[in-house]
């Protein structure tokens, strides 16, 4: 896996709910081996974009292509072998064990019973995410951070080429945030997979992403290398906040100030 | 923490040398050992899974054993207690007339073959259907409190049956009572119509439920809607009772309490193929239903066509339950109790929970029917009453459990 270089291309994508257009006519692409962060204020459509990429929602118009093929036209099972999704909210039904949940990732490859290879892949995914000691534990008994790792392990077991995360760090403490970011980074580099992640934290984005995409007002504000895109001007324009970008021995970081303006409160 | 971040920084600044082991120098051996260690570890984890599968299969077999024991007890006990040897003799004689002789008291054979065997088989089939349907509905709607009964399917199907009993003779005239022979068994148009009408109205209720579920209803909303759907059809049933004549009224009243009065061989012949086909079909959906347990979005992500799966699963569950309910009347809570008990015992893998709870459902219903027959011997009470009682208490216990806070 991961040997081939694949490209995910978004073309003129438009998406919304009812009369409300959330994303209007955006185009970009992402490829194997890179980690692309999607940034933007609350309500800018990050989650909507993420869910559309994973085919949870069908696009209003426009298309998502993988290797030149329209994902809408692909067999859902084949698509499942290409795109793995880690949602923001995780629900589970009573009495499911960690093993049960990770094996769901093998669903695109099986009909009714798992082969030895499926079990091995699931076991390895649990080892990678360090949840193997909980294999027989009820998911509901785990903490939020552990549960997140189980859900990532589930996606690893799916062996996709594109990993799509929806704000994986927003509910976590510092330790878990950094762990999650490091895991995503290593997925993209070691497995030569593409990781697309919606993020809130600009500092995490600067430190870990290969490229960042900033969404604002239904469209792409900017896309490129984090140090080029994350600037005082961008933060002022998109978030309505004054900020300094400071460089020290650890690299760049963002220090934001209260701009004293009230228009932020008007956002969704 | 500090260390951690600095390694990350190194990795970020030099993505080409991601394999940290290579960086550490001449440790090819180390790497081999690591691989070996990982292999052993994953062997161990696979072993855990294999053991859990064995445990689950064993549980299914245990349920099979229990339901077989209860099956024979049900043949032996009743207004007259028949020794087990005579029960076996009666059945054996009918299968191999020249090999096995009749029991000494020949009326035992009549009781077993004409009364108890069809009655027990109806209990078994109904228990299997209700519990299997409950398991599937709970999995599809990701709600541990749904079942054919709590979603209003049972009441709706009863309404279909009630109007058949009351208005059948008016609508179809003498054709309603027409007899014909199928596989040497007498069939009535009435019985066939009961099944069809139960199914039609059972479907109507499940369509309403699906419409509600689509709007992302919360778990309690879904149950409340089920209760209210039940009330609406209850109104229809009351109306049918009010306008019916004495004979039909008695039939409906008995029937609504849920009992095994309609247990005839012709009922079994109609139900047997329906139950077998539907349960096998549902079992084949088991792994798809499993992937729903982590949420709709993940199910979609692993390539499941959710809408199709829900539609198929709910329609087939409704078909199999309403067909049985058409003969037995309202039997509550089995579809709730049996799957829940099995989940507590073996976890959430529908591939195993479905057969286990189907067998347990059959044992619960057959067992309750034995009680219904002997509690005020020689009279009997409708088995539905017993299940309302046990099931009601079980439901209260279930919703007051602490861990349900997270699960509901």
How does this model look, in words?
By secondary structure, chain A is α/β, with parallel strands linked by helices. Chain A has one domain: 3-Layer(aba) Sandwich (Rossmann fold). Chain A has nine helices and twelve strands. In chain A, helix 6 (174-190) links the parallel strand 7 and strand 8. In chain A, helix 4 (116-128) crosses helix 5 (144-157). Chain B has helices at residues 2-13, 20-23, 28-76, 84-95, 106-141, 153-172, 189-214, 219-243, 246-256, 265-284, 286-291, 296-301, 306-328, 334-346, 350-374, 383-400, 404-407, and strands at residues 179-182, 185-188. Mean pLDDT of chain B is 84; it is low at 1-23. By secondary structure, chain B is mostly helical. Chain B has a two-stranded antiparallel sheet with strand order 1-2. Chain B has a single domain, classed as ABC transporter involved in vitamin B12 uptake, BtuC (Orthogonal Bundle). The chains are: A alpha/beta (268), B mainly alpha (408). The interface between A and B is large, with 60 and 49 residues.
